[in-house]
Amino acid sequence: MITQPADIEWMFPRHPRSVGRARVQLLRQAYAWRVPDDAIETALLLLSELVTNACRHARAPRDRLIGVRFAVTGCGVLRVEVADANPDLPEPRRAGPEDESGRGLELVAALAASWGAHPRGPGRIGKIVWFELKPE
């Protein structure tokens, strides 16, 4: 694991293919930072959920980009953020046994050390949804 803070950001089109592209970037960066394999696997799953949500639910014009940021702190916490142009903050919902979707945020809540969402900074539209993993 690296010992100093590090972060990197990418922008992706609001398109389903961006899920896989974001996963590849996270995988490459996590290996460069020497993030433990179990944390990488969890981060890839949760990143997929957040980018998929941004693509499906952003309710913004298709030309709006999705921002993805990865950071590792000196104490080894991996933080992943996904920003989109929709100001509505997400809320977990209970999916029924027959529902084909609706479990993503429950999964994030169950597997992440912490997670949340907040509006983007002043003068910026949309929100950021994030999670943190503390490798063992």
List SSEs in N-to-C order. EHHEEHEE
Largest sheet: 5 strands, antiparallel
- Side by side, the strands of the main sheet go 1-2-3-5-4
Beta strands, count: 5
- How far apart are the first and last residues' alpha carbons, in Å? 11 Å
Summarize the structure.
The protein has 136 residues and is α+β, with helices and mostly antiparallel strands. The protein is built from 3 helices and 5 strands.
Written description of the protein model:
By secondary structure, the protein is α+β, with helices and mostly antiparallel strands. Helices cover 33% and strands 26% of the residues. The chain is built from three helices and five strands, in the order E-H-H-E-E-H-E-E. A five-stranded antiparallel sheet has the order 1-2-3-5-4, with helices on one face. Strand 2 (65-72) and strand 3 (78-84) form a beta hairpin. Helix 1 (17-32) runs antiparallel to helix 2 (37-57) and helix 2 runs antiparallel to helix 3 (104-111). The protein is globular, with a radius of gyration of 14 Å. 28% of the residues are buried. The model has no long low-confidence stretch (mean pLDDT 87).
Overview features:
26% strand
Secondary structure layout plus pairing:
Layout (H helix, E strand, L loop, with lengths): L5 E8 L3 H16 L4 H21 L7 E8 L5 E7 L19 H8 L2 E6 L7 E7 L3
Antiparallel strand pairs: 1-2, 2-3, 3-5, 4-5
